[in-house]
Design goal:
Blueprint lengths: L2 E5 L2 E4 L4 E8 L4 E10 L6 E6 L5 E3 L7 E6 L4 E6 L8 E10 L7 E4 L3 E6 L1
């Protein structure tokens, strides 16, 4: 069974840094785009950053210049380097991947279980 497993969340002071990782497990035919989303209490889940299989990236305006998304296709892993963290970055961060698990199936979205990031002021 295919799973996405996040790690790297935690508590950090404003101005600090964290690096999130999301590793896939299970048999996968192809991974297309991968991304990070976040959901703060009382708010809708929002896109933070996304990276295509070709390496193109896009970011939410609120994190541009502070966060960097990258991927290691040899490890089927996506990363989110978060610098200059602010209290408003506090949220549960979810990994997302558009994947085909078999050559004969279509692609679909897979989600991780989420990891908490808390930034104190």
């Amino acid at each position: 069974q295919v799973q996405l497993v996040e790690s790297g969340g935690g508590l950090v002071q404003a101005g600090g840094s964290l690096r999130l990782s999301c590793a896939t497990s299970g048999s996968i035919f192809r991974i297309n785009a991968m991304g990070w989303y976040r959901q703060a209490p009382g708010k809708q889940r929002e896109l933070v950053a996304r990276i295509t299989s070709g390496g193109s990236t896009n970011y939410a305006d609120s994190v541009k210049g502070r966060f960097t998304i990258s991927r290691d296709d040899a490890k089927n892993t996506v990363y989110l380097q978060m610098n200059s963290l602010k209290p408003e970055d506090t949220a549960v961060y979810y990994c997302n991947a558009d994947m085909r698990v078999k050559y004969y199936t279509g692609s679909r979205d897979y989600w991780g279980q989420g990891t908490q990031v808390t930034v104190s002021s």
